[in-house]
Every structure is written in C-alpha cells, then in structure tokens.
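Q: Protein A?
A:
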Amino acid sequence: MIAILGGLFLLLSLFFWQEASMPVLPGVFAEEISVPLQFFKLGTELINIEVNNFLLFQNFESLPPILDSKFSLIYGALIVSLLGFGLTLLSTLKKMYFIGSTAGVIFFFTFTVINGLNISGLSTNYPLIILLVGTIIPLVFIHFFKTHWDLSKRILVILPSFILTLIVLLYFAKVNSAQLFLSENITLPVAFLAVLFMFHIGHAVVSSSSIFLIKLNQGLKLKISWHITILSILYFFLVLFTLLSIMGEVNLPFPTLPPSLLFLVSGIFGYFVLEYKISQTEQIFDHHLVGKSFYLIGFAMTSWTWGKAIYTFNEPLIEFFNHTFLYGQIALTLLFFAYLLTNFSSILNSGGALEKVIFKPQHFAYFHMRIGATMLVVILIIFANGVIATQLTAASANLYADYNYQIGNLRNARILYENSWMEYFKNDRAKNTVAHIYLEENQNSSALRHLEESFDYAPNVPNILLISSMLHKSDKILEAIFYLEKGLEYYPNDPKLLNNLALLYSKINKPDQAIAALENISTSKEIKISNTIALSIKHNLTVPENMNLGVDKITKINQLALANKLGNFADFTLDTKNLPEQFVIKSSLLRNQWTNQAVSDFEIDLGIIDSLVKQNQTAYEERNYWETKVIRSHQGNEIDETLKYLSGSTFSFPNHAAAYHVMAGEILASQLDFEKAAIDFKIAAADGYKEFKPFHLAILYFSGKIEEALALKEKQQVNFPSWMEWDENGALIQNQQVKYYQILKTFHQSISSKIIKSLSELTDSELKSELAFFVMIHKAHSLKKDDFESLEQILTNGDNAVWTKEEFEELTLALLEGKSDIKSDKVSRIIKPNLSLIRNSYLTPLVMQAVQKEEDSLKKYEILQEAIQFNKDPILWMAFVKESRINGLGNYGTKAVEEMAAWLSNEELEKLMMENL
C-alpha cells in the first residue's frame, strides 16, 4: 500500500504539484473608471451623475516559497516505517549476508546526521550509539537465537524497538523541531538507497518485454529476436535522448518522457520480472516473499523520495534522480540486450520456454552483466562531467536550508540557499527563496542583485515575474518590460509573462500591444478574458465579442463595469450576500453591482454595507464602502438618505469633500433644487474641484451666484452652455431654455398657480411637456381640477406626448390617493409602490400621502419636520406649521412662517395661511 501511494504521489507531484512550493498566483488590483449612475434631462441638457466603478486586473506574482512541515513529518514517518520493515527482513538473511547488511545499516545510520540532535553536547556520538543499540541488538538477537520466528513475530519486536528508540532520541534532542530535523536530513541517505533500487530495475523494461515475447512465441517459432532488438533499440534511444535533453546537449524535434514516469513504468515491469529472477539465481534469502518485500520497500522509498524532491522543488535532488536513473537504464538496457543475444541468439526463435532459464547462463553470466553495466555507469558519469557530485552537494544544502526555513531561522536558510545555488545553478527555488528572504529583511537591492544573477545564469518564470514586479514598484516600468520581453525569448508564449507584459504595456499607454499580448495567451483563459475586458474599457477600445464567455467572479465584475459605462442593465446579477473575503474583489463587486441594479431589499443591503463600514480597516477601505453606501441609497431612490450620507462623507473624508459636494449638487439639481445645488457647487469650487462642466455654471448662474459662475469660467476655462448668450450690455439674452431655467430655479418654493401660469408662457413643446411632468410629480398635491386637465392635454397630446390618457389617470391616482395596484410600468418606475413614501422629500405628493395615512399626530410632525429640511414647497411647510401647533410646538411653526416670508410674497403667504391653517 505504501508503494502504491508512493507511485500515485510521484505522479501527482510530476503533473500537478511540480512547483507547489514555489507559488505563482494571480494577484488582483483595481483601477477606477467613471460611469454614469443616473441620467436626467433639464431642457436640452442631458446630465449624468457620475460615480466610480472598478476594473479588476489580475497580475501574476511570485509569492514566498511554501514548505509544508506536516508533509515533511509524514514523509519521515513513512520512511521510518519502511526502514522498520526493511530491518525485519534483514533478520531473515543468510549468515554472511546478514553480517554484511548489518554493517550497511550502521553505515546508513552514520549518514543520517543523527548526531545533529545534540544530546549531551554539540554533535556528540550518543544519538548514534543509542540508535544502534536500539536497532542492532534486537536484530542480532532474533537472527541468531530466534531463527524459527516468522515475519509477524519479528516485526512485532524490531519495529517497536526501532520506533521507541527514535522517540527517546527525539525526547532528549536539543534542536528545534527535532522531528522535522530528522525528516529532512534522512532524505539524502534514503536517496542513496533509491539509487541502488534504480540500478536494480535498470533493464526491467527490456527484460519484461523479452519475457512477454518469449511466452507469446511458445510453440509458434516466430523470429522474435527482431522484435526484441527493435524494442530494445527504441527504448535505449528513448532514455539516451532523454539524458541528452536534460543535459541540454541537443534540442530534439520531438518530446521525451519525464524520467520519473519512466521510473514508474520500469518499477512496475520489474516487479513482474522479479519472480523469474528470484527462482533462477542464487539469492541471499530463503523465501520469495522476502525478495518481493525488499523490492516493494525499494520502490516505495524511491517513489516517495523522488516525489518529495519534485513536490518541494529541490531541483538538484530531482536532477540527481534523473541522471542516476537514466545512467542505470542506458547501461543495463544495453548490457542486458548484449547478454540476451550472447546467450540465447541461437535458440531465441525456437519457441521454447526460455523465460525459465533467462537468468541462468554461465558463459556470460547475469552477475558479469551487472559488473559491465556498473563500468558503463561510471563512463556515463565521466561523460556528464561528474555532475551528480555537485547535484548531491547542492541537494544536501537545500535540505538543511529547508529545515531552517521551516523553523523560521531565515538567516541560516538564506546562507545555505545561496551556497546551494553557487554549487548548482539549476536551482530555481533556492534563488527565489533568497530573494524573498532579502525582501522580508527590507534589503531590496540585495534581492534585486540575486534576481539579476538568476536571470543571467538560469532564468525562470517566477524570478522574472519577481524582478519585473520589483522594478515596476520602483517606477522603472521600461526595465520591468525589458525583463518580461527577454523572458519571453526563453519561455515563448508563457501565459504569466504575457499577462504581466500586457498590463505594463497598458501602463505606458500602448493598448494595442497590450491586447495583442493577451491574444497570444493560450491558457489561463479566464484571466485572459477578464484582463482583456478591463483593458478594453480602460482604453476605450471595443470589447471583443467573445469576451462574454467568462463565468468567474472577477470577469463578471468587469462585465458589470462595461454595462455601467454603456448605461445598460447587465443580463446577470452577482450575489451581494455571500461576499468573498478579499477586499478588492468584495468592494468592487458591491460597487459595480449596485451601480448597475440593486435586486435585494434596501434594508438588507444597508445592513451588509454598514457591517463592512464598522470593521477595523484602513481609511481608504472605509471611504470605499461609504461611497458604495451612497450609491446603494441612490439606487434605492432613498434621496434623503443619499444626501445625508454625502454630507457625512464631506466631514469624514475632507480630502474628497469636493467630489462629494459636486455629486450632492447634481442629485439636488435632478430634484430641481437649484438653490441647494448651487451651494454645494460653490463649496466644491472653494475646496479646489477642477472638473466643472457647463451645466454646473448654469446652475450657479440661475441660483443667483453669478460672480462664482463667472469666476469658474475664467479660472477653469469652462464655457457656459451654448444656449446662454449675453448682449453687448452683459444682459442674458432671453430664449425658451433661459425662460425654462428661470422657472426651475424657484420651482419648489413657488405656489402651483404661479408655475401653471409660467407653463402657459412656454412655447417650446418639448420644454412645456417636460415642465408639465415635473409639475405632476412634485406639485400634484396642490393642483386643482382645471390644472390636471391642462397638464393632461400637454402630456397626452401633441408631438411630444409620451403618456396615454390611461397612464396619466393612473399616475394622478397614484400621486393623490396612493393607488398600489399600478399596471403601467412607466408609472410604477416613478411611484415605486413597494418603497417608502417618505424616501424622497422632493416627491411632495407622496410625502403628503404619508402624512394623511399616519394617525399619530407626533409622527406626522416628525415626517414633515424631516421633509422641510430639504423641500421648500409652501403647502408642505404649511402642513408642518399646522402639525407643530397641534403638538404644542407652535414656536417652531412660527419660525417656519418667518422663513417662508423670504421666498413668498405677503399676499401668497397670507392666502396659504388662510387656506391651510
């Protein structure tokens, strides 16, 4: 079972976890764009209230290496188990072989760095002595005195004794995390055992294929020698070219198999050959079960150790395994083929049962074949310039560095990794770890120097990404681009390098090159789609048609930003309740979704955003959520609350107060409150707002702040709207649009009869129709029957009629009587019967409805008191005066009357008091 799990672990490490310890993950950052929150029309002016949405970009980053201490401990436990099983099997060997094996055990334990546990002193021999006593004595006792014991009894003594000895050593150890220390340092000695096993299966593929063909040929007498020759040659050249490829000696036009995969194939084939070999040659044990068990232990140790090397990305150890395995395969494949032809060429095609004697020949014995293979392995090592020596040295340094890295001794780890890289340059994680440790120590220049060395001698994708990121953060964008472009010469079309290069092209305003780089990405399709959408929006390019395929959350957030920029409703909604943990994604999701449309109940959404605002966070994060709260309130038609939140924002975030004042002014202008809008624009100008538009100047001018409007015109070079022109005396030339704005500037303060009269003075049918609509939704509570008839005539007849008579009647009933079963979508969008009547104090008819429906006089007073903070409608204020007197608060009513005298004539005021009090 351990052997099978080891094989699976090696496969998973090879295909899925090859760089698990050297993570490169897409980080997310956001950039703001302006999108329209609401369009509204005032005459010929089409105005939009702009807010910020977020574009999310994903940028690949090299993160600090991750080493899983739990995995190292599991590996150590498995190796201890396998060693315990192996010691049990040693006790069954024949006498002389047992003595030699026992000496081998002592030699093995000496190289496990067990004395590094520092028991009773620094590097004393006590740990080794204790370990030998706890293992060798039970082994010798059983071998000489309990020869009749079966394997089950032997293992019940030897394995517990071995484990208990290790527990005692760990208990008295004086090093940090002694278990981890042993687990890491036992790896290299086990690697030597793995090499012996790899040499043992060196001819497994050829020998198993030969036995299979021989068995198939029994009784047929086919010329299988040709089949065996062809198979042997093909396999020989496969492993030879694989070796040359990993050495960089040749650039092959065809792919080769990874050596670890070849090992698994050889190991499986070798197990089926084992039975023939054991039965035909003299063995050092008496029972076949012992030989098979030794084989499985060797396979398990090799697969787990090789898998660990890949999983932890210990490249020197990986290369050591690659080289030694391929040396053994080349040597033993060649020699076994020669052995086979030398001994059996004359009878190979006879159809006999040669598999029963294939390992028995005498004139070129199987033993001699292995001696010749060993000599060939030595020749191959010389041919490779003895590279395995440097690989071993570097691998050993990496293992000890890994231990120090995991226990937090970063300085020692850094020094060991540096030495390891100097020994063997194909050592990406060592160099990457050194750079990250220097960054953690705030030694950026040293980190950069090591990354430059890595790029010069052994470039790899994580280090290229890291050096590019560092240069980008230092505002050396052109240098960052250079490394990415150069890196693509080593790793053509690498998706991570292309993605990051595209984002840097965008930074230097090369959008076409950025999009072209993204188009070359063949993998990471979700990131490709998301970044393509974001870059297209950022640079005002047309988004490719196939970019609506993304289904991941980040892509959807960018698609929402696109819909918002175009003023469209998206055909999907994102869940705003189950939010991601990452701030940039969470905040962008809420902002973009609520800018597009809000589908949940306002109170629920308000609870979500309030809980986020209250969290302990940076000022930027708090401001971000606060602005999102403003947007959600506005989308919920909670105009009163929106204006309150904006007012609070100006105090909480004074550096951004100017923008908040402008947004508040635009919302007030959309509600026809030019007076308050102009005040906000004036404050924004004083706070240094630089992006005023012609519409803003018009509001200031018609609100009586003419000097401020003219000052902004000169200071910011902003022109008045084209419909505002002056004669040679400086007087504003009258036209229908000017007349219209003169009516709107005091719209709410005016009594309805005055507005109806002004309405009749407008000759432009479009302006007349628009003003008639405003009168309906803001002044319906104070209109007479004749007024409704004239408004109906304007809104339902003529070229600019957009209402039917049925819709007009439904709107009238909804405004005056609170009709809830509204059939017309057009009326429903205005009234929104599912929302509060007092959400918008400027919708005076709805506020008056709420007052009429309320039975508690004090609550009526509170509703009206809230409304008059915004709306100066005379009827609304008279209702407040009346309720204040009813509730014994007449002094507030008197003060309100005094204020009304500022915008109403005495005659108008007296008439209102007579009719309403």
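Q: Protein B?
A:
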Amino acid sequence: MREMLTGGELDVLTGDYLAELTMLILGRDRLKDPGAGYARTFLRQLEECLGLAHERGVRIVANAGGLNPAGLADAVRELAARLGLSVRVAHVEGDDLTAAHPGSLAAHAYLGGFGIAACLREGADVVVTGRVTDAALVTGPAAAHFGWAPTDYDRLAGAVVAGHVLECGAQATGGNYAFFGERPVRELLRPGFPLAEIHEDGTAVITKHPGTGGFVDIGTVTAQLLYETGGARYAGPDVTARLDTVQLSSDGPDRVRIAGVRGEAPPPTLKVGVNRLGGFRNEVTFVLTGLDIETKAELVRAQMTDALALAKSPPAEVRWELVRTDRPDAPTEELASALLRLVVRDPDQAAVGRALSGAAIELALASYPGFHVLAPPGKGAPYGVFEDVYVPHGDAAHVAVLHDGRRVAVAPPQDTLVLDDVAEPDPPEPLPDGPFTRAFTRAPLGRIAGARSGDKGGNANVGVWVRTDAAWRWLAHELTVDRFRQLLPECEGLTVRRHVLPELRALNFVVEGILGAGVAAQHRFDPQAKALGEWLRARHLDIPEALL
C-alpha cells in the first residue's frame, strides 16, 4: 500500500481482499466473534498508510468489509480518530443473503459498483464494501468520476476489463506468468502492482509505477484477462463485458492499451456465493521408498481399508492417490520415495479422527518395509462447500451508507439481457501447405503457448494463448476439446467447454466439476487449479517446426 501511494500519481487506491475461500474463513471467524467478519490486515495497512493517503488526496476503495462492512467502517473511523485524521468513511451493504439460505455459513450476492460510486460522489475518502465483484472496485470509482449512467454499457465494460486485469495484483506485472523465463530473475524478484489509467470513453492503459519490479506487456495482460473467466460474455451485476471485443496494443514500455470493449445489459439475476460447512476431513501421507512401490501401496491400502471397515464409525468418503515422485537408482532417499496420500471425509469429526490416526500409526511395525508417514494425522479439520446460485436483482437490498449516516438505495438495472453463449466465430485459415505442415517436432505445448488457470466454485478454467498469427492458426485447429481431454486425462468424463477469442489469439476451456465442491473441500491435489494450465503446457504433442 505504501509503495502504491508513494510510487507515482494515483487518484484511487483499490484493494481486493475477498475470494470464495476467504468468505468461508470470515464466516468461521464470525461464529466465534459476531463483531468479526472483516479483513483485519486492511486495518494494519491503514495504520501505516491512512495519513499518507489523506495527505495526497488518494481515495481508498476496498472490499475488505467481507461479512461485516459496517463493522469495518466503524473500525476505520476509530483508527482515523486515534491518528488525528479527519477522514470520511462510507460503506456498502446489502449483499448478505445468509438468512435466505438456511444452513449456510455465509451467502452473499456479488454486487456491482454503483453503491461505491454513490459513496464517492457524496465525498467519501474511504469506502469499504462486502461482497462486490472484483471489477466493481474499479467500475465504481470510474462511474463516479466520469458521471457514467447505468446504461453506459461500453464504458462500464471497458472499466470491468481494466478491473479484472488489476484484481489479482502482480499477476498483471509478471507474477505467475508462463513466459517468466524470458526475463532476468532480478526483474521478477519483487513485481510492482498494476494500475489503470481510465479514460471517459472506457478505454484504459494498464501500467505500473516507474521503478517498480516486474513488467507489463500484452502477454501479462492477456494472461490475466483469461484468468477465471468463461465464454466471450463476462457477466457482472452492472454490465456484461464482451471479452471477444477486447483489443490490446502496446502503448510504450510497461504500458498496454485496452480498447474496443463492447458492453451489454447485465443478466437478469445476481450471482450468490453460498458457503456451507461440509463436514470434517483428515489425511495421512505414507512414504514408499525404493523397490516395489506399487506392491507396497497395494499392501498398505488393503490394510487401511480393512482397519477402517472395522471402525465403530467408518469415514463416509475415502480417497487414495499415489504420486510417483520416486526415481530408479536415486542418489538421495527423498528421490527414491513416492507418496501415497489418503484423504477421508465425514460429517462426524470422530469418524475421521481417532479412527484414521489409530489405524495408520498402529501399522508402523506391521506393514511394508520402510514404513513411515510425512506427519501423523490429527483429529480432523472442518472443510467447506461452495455453491453459486442465482437470484433476481431485487433480492439484494443494495445500499450505500454515506459518511454522514444517510442511506442511499441503489436501484437494480432497468434493462437486462439473458446470458446466452456467443456463437463460435469462424476459425482462422489453417496453416498453408509447406514448411508449416511437412515437418513436426514432438515438444511441450508450452514452447509456443502460454496458459493461466484458476477456479470458480467446483469448475476450473484454462486459458491458452499464443503470440503470433501463425501459431494461432495452428492452435485454433489443433487444441480441440478432444485433444484437451487427451492431454489432461483427469478431465475424461467431465464436461469441457471451449471458447474461442480470436482478438486475444486465445482459447478458454472450462472444465466443469473437476474441483468438486470448491477450494475449501480440497477435492484434488491442486484444489484451486492454479497449475492446471502449467500441466497442459508441459504435455507433448506434434508442433510444426516452423513455429518453434
């Protein structure tokens, strides 16, 4: 926060503190303390930087209010008073629909940016919100500054795209970037945070403060545009942005211009993220060393299955996974070892506690040679389940609570548009006969393609893009849904949807259900699918030598 405030010109400082998992964590905090439910790290940052922002005239907009935006607003006022600062603090509420979803720990609608805009138009210096869309932290200030109306769809869509690029911080400035190896390590040690210069017509330039680490180029912006998205229509409560209209161009060193973004009326419903406690989980990882790895795994699995079946209350769900990290004739014991992971789940904590730990540890002298585990299992920990549901806009009483206590209702959109898939565009012309089609090399896809992947509830997306027209002409025809499933066998049997974005030379794959009940359920080894794209890039296929 200090770096953003001191590194260069800034009008509004935004902060995105919320994720699906964060909402579950804040919900558990609120069970212990009804006054909790917001991101306390935000207050620690303001302790150091609120005076600096006030001195420089920088407004602060953050969704750190989580489940308790009113509580956070009061805490900011108390902090400001203690620091001797005259700061006008407002907040946005109305997202909490927990009462309408019995049995949920937290159920919150994703609100848009016009509550934030109302607070800023009335003079707020700090605006804190609960669950708004990540992009709303940018669309709200832009709408307030330029006086945009709710029907200025193209302008709002441009701000949504800029907000989506900013929302994950350094992921737009070289962090988690597929082609990071093309840059010197010193440049990536501490990437700066991105900022957006937004214009009245909705166009924007993504850049960063001078002298900060990392870099901004068309590739880093493309990667973040594909992150956690689906089809060409990127829906929000204020506007649906058409990602198939986004045009990126270089605007100088560390500057990428976003233009051409078209917007449509938002869908008739609001997304609501519903978090529930799903039960309790526990796990133990057996280390299998040296020879006969498969046979050792078979033995301990049979022993554990037998022991758990004899338990007073066997776990309801049992999952095994053998990870072959071992190598033949390994120079170290660790490199000679594989990992066999056992995960159990049950609504009853007792069923995943002593039943598992007793069975596992009692095998220590009675199982495969070299028996040991990474750590003994504990008593079992609660896990969460995430579900998204959709309700009419009017179900959420979107309200801007101004710094002077006045409450301003934010009207739902007057016009809406049902969210249908965009017809797939015509593919580019295949590569011409000649050097492109006569000589191929077996190589990793990542030699020519970048990727970024992420999670949305139980689904994952993998965005894949290339940097030349020739590579695009090959990728668009080669990486079909069937080939995608072939390269990532974990996707077999799951619904996979492919979306084509020619302006970005990109394909976006949405894999439904691969993450089970969401990140908090820890359904798979990589529960948020953050590395799914890197696995895809590591898979080998026949690539035209001319592209390499």
